[in-house]
Specification:
Order of helices and strands: EHEHEHHEHEEHEEEHEEEHEEH
Distance between the termini: 41 Å
Radius of gyration: 19 Å
CATH topology of the domain at 9-164 and 190-222 and 263-278: Rossmann fold
Shape: globular
Number of helices: 9
Low-confidence stretches: 298-311
Number of strands: 14
CATH class of the domain at 9-164 and 190-222 and 263-278: Alpha Beta
Largest sheet: 6 strands, parallel
Mean pLDDT: 93
Strand content: 15-25%
Length: 311
């Protein structure tokens, strides 16, 4: 492992909203970074990965690239596995050879969604969807190949200024729909990509100095809510009547991939790294809201972003 600040960070999936916020955070901190979109670096191609490491010799790699088309993965699991499982394995192998730290962004979908209290970082996994299985494969590759320099950061329900999300959709629908029916039986943690980017940048820096133990961290906001209550909060922040949002149940919207009924995550691991968990989701949403009101930029390809599934 290196502490050489001259060696850059390599951020994959650079077209996605999380990677964009992370790159901005690194630039503000004066940390050199290489932004690699899917067109720049196909993480499923061993030769491309080797060439990228030879060219850049990264100190830290943050893998934001992912197949996040949750429903499509049910019919195209092999393709999703190539991005979510093989890609992280190839990056981990390259990091092992270069002495690089790897931060692997993962998901709440590695759990079965049947809990009634937040999942701890060491809670048993049990994905119920192809997407969850492929993301878990990526986690296992990182844990196996990089026991000392591998970091898995699970997140969920992301929203941000640089891409599409449930929050951005709700803002748009408020303008065109007198009422909205939104599911009220799925619990999770809305998370601002800017907040998660801050944690990733700090975690990577602490990893380089040995101040953060390797392993699993949960990068979601504290607190928990449902899609229905989140949509009501969006309406409230818009100055609209939250009563225009009506609760409904998931069986009204049957999807190919099962959605977790409960996927709130616990955050105890941050203390071991000398860091605080991400703040409460309501406070974050209020701060983020002005940045979300303009139309989003054209969305990146699904393999370049780690965004939440629509409810």
């Amino acid at each position: 492992m290196t502490t050489d600040r001259a060696r850059p960070w390599l951020v994959t999936g650079a077209g996605g909203m999380l990677a964009r916020d992370l790159l901005a955070r690194l630039a503000a901190a004066g940390l050199p970074a290489v932004a690699a979109t899917r067109g720049d670096l196909d993480i499923t191609d061993p030769d491309a990965v080797r060439a990228a490491f030879a060219a850049h010799r990264p100190a830290v790699v943050v893998n934001c690239a992912a197949w996040t088309a949750v429903d499509d993965a049910e019919e195209r699991e092999a393709e999703a596995l190539a991005v979510n499982g093989t890609g992280p394995r190839l990056l981990a192998e390259a990091c092992r050879g270069a002495g690089s730290v790897l931060l692997q962004v993962s998901t709440d979908y590695v759990f079965d969604g049947r809990a009634r209290a937040p999942y701890g970082e060491d809670a048993p996994t049990g994905p119920r969807s192809a997407y969850g299985r492929t993301k878990l494969a990526g986690e296992e590759a990182v844990r196996t190949l990089l026991p000392d320099t591998g970091y898995i950061v699970r997140t969920a329900w992301l929203y941000g200024a640089g891409g599409s999300s449930f929050v951005r959709t709700a803002i748009g629908l408020e303008r065109t729909h007198p009422v909205l029916d939104v599911v009220d039986d799925q619990w999770g943690q809305p998370t601002w990509t800017a907040d998660l980017a801050d944690r990733l940048a700090e975690l990577g820096q602490r990893a380089l100095t040995g101040a953060a133990p390797p392993g699993v961290y949960h990068g979601t906001s504290t607190g928990a809510t449902t899609w229905f209550a989140l949509c009501q909060e969006v309406f409230r922040l818009l100055g609209a009547d939250p009563a225009r949002v009506r609760p409904t149940t998931s069986d009204r919207y049957v999807r190919p991939a099962p959605r977790p009924a409960y996927s709130a995550l616990g955050h105890d691991r941050w203390q071991a790294a000398g860091m605080a968990p991400i703040r409460h989701w309501r406070a974050a949403l209020a701060d983020a809201f002005p940045t979300l009101l303009d139309p989003p930029e054209p969305p990146a390809p699904p393999t370049d972003t780690e965004s939440p599934p629509a409810p």
